[in-house]
Design goal:
Structural class: alpha/beta
Radius of gyration: 22 Å
CATH superfamily of the largest domain: Glucose-6-phosphate isomerase like protein, domain 1
Number of strands: 5
Length: about 290
């Protein structure tokens, strides 16, 4: 899998030194210009030493400046094909913002499909298929995804519980046993309550899975399986603008994959679910 310059900057930004962050910021704001620059020219423009450019490339996972530029050129080309425009300005109307937000969502899904570790995804699905009970944790903007995941698993016939309250998250781990799975969803990967829930679940003997946008974040240290979302949230003033879409898409991937493994049972439960929901709708119409 080819390393991605822009995604590496986004995912590793907080781990970079002050000089490396200056270089990263310059690259993000001048992507096409950087493609024509030498090491010395980029160093001068970013107000850093030449050696800092090489160190930054290494920190981002590249062996050389040339390798970093090849990756950047590929991304710039892909972004043009996706009609991706990164910035939103205060004077833009709703129609213009719609185009940019939807473009960002499309790019996030595209980047995630390109960058995710598919072997890890397969292993995570297999673990969930064999779980006794599945516990799902998340707060804030992740709470919607947590509730959706639990509902989808319940529809498939799995014993699944979700927790978005900090106190309940901790208390719930007292019931976890070996053979159970704990899933933590956190865009930033720094949500203390979710991290602590996974840590306690591991102590109890459960396997742990996380869905996050930051592969080097604290939540990954408590996770046996890391499912990474590649969002471009750095470019927007609102947290996780496109990451939420990708988190829900990842939940779709997991639950549909689980459905496919037990297709006949899933088909049967799907019909039963439809019948139950139709009964509810019929009663509502009678009122």
């Amino acid at each position: 899998m080819q390393n991605s310059c822009i995604m590496s900057i986004k995912n590793k930004y907080e781990l970079l030194t002050a000089a490396e962050k200056k270089i990263a910021d310059y690259i993000l704001n001048n992507r096409e210009t950087v493609l024509k620059m030498t090491v010395a020219e980029l160093a001068k423009s970013a107000s850093v030493a030449n050696s800092a450019i090489i160190r930054c490339c290494n920190s981002l996972g590249f062996k050389s400046y040339s390798e970093m530029k090849i990756s950047l050129a590929s991304e710039v080309s892909q972004n043009k094909q996706l009609n991706y425009v990164p910035y939103i300005y205060p004077d833009e109307n709703a129609s213009e913002i719609l185009d940019k937000i939807f473009a960002a969502d499309i790019k996030t899904l595209h980047d995630t499909a390109s960058g995710i570790n598919r072997k890890t995804l397969e292993k995570a699905v297999d673990k969930l298929l064999g779980a006794n009970t599945i516990y799902i944790y998340g707060v804030g903007t992740s709470s919607g995804a947590v509730n959706d995941f639990q509902y989808r698993l319940m529809q498939l016939g799995y014993s699944a519980f979700c927790y978005t309250d900090v106190a309940a998250m901790k208390v719930s781990t007292m019931n976890i046993k070996a053979g159970d799975i704990a899933v933590g969803i956190s865009h930033s990967g720094r949500t203390v309550a979710t991290i602590e829930a996974l840590k306690l679940a591991k102590i109890q003997g459960a396997d742990t899975i996380c869905i996050t946008s930051y592969p080097d974040s604290l939540i990954t240290k408590e996770s046996d399986f890391v499912l990474e979302i590649f969002s471009d949230e750095i470019q927007y003033p609102v947290e996780a603008v496109s990451a939420r879409i990708a988190h829900l898409a990842m939940i779709d991937v997991i639950t549909v994959s689980m459905s496919a493994k037990n297709y006949k049972e899933t088909e049967k439960r799907s019909k039963e679910t439809r019948n139950l929901l139709n009964t509810i709708r019929y009663k509502e119409r009678k009122k």
